Amino acid sequence: MADTPDSRRVVSATEFVAQLRADQNMLNFSNCIIEGDVELRSVRFSHPLIIRNTHLKGHVDAVDARFERSVEMSQCRFEGGINLRGAR
Fold it and tell me: Is 46 a domain residue?
């Protein structure tokens, strides 16, 4: 993870997914740049998830993902698109 001149954290998609799968109490990815494709197909999240003002450069695949707690994705840019088909 590194910082850019505009003070955004740069996080690899691999690191991002690993933290999401770790099932921590709450995850907050604010002011980040996520580099790479994010594979979350059929993943179950039992914790709140906050992603704000973040640029996701790759494709986000969360088909059939299960979000058991609150999810906030505000002011984000999904450069490669996002697929939430069947997610709930």
Answer: yes
Beta strands 9-12 and 44-45 are unpaired
Mean pLDDT, range 3-9, rounded to an integer:
69
The C-alpha torsion from 23 through 27 and 31 to 33, rounded to 10°, is 0
What are 56-70's pLDDT values in tens digits?
A: 999 999 999 999 999
* Count of residues in the chain: 88
In a domain, 88, yes or no: no
Mean pLDDT of 12-27: 87
Would residue 3 be called left, alpha or beta, if left means φ above 0 and alpha means ψ between -120 and 50 degrees? beta
Count up the domains in the chain and report the number. Answer: 1
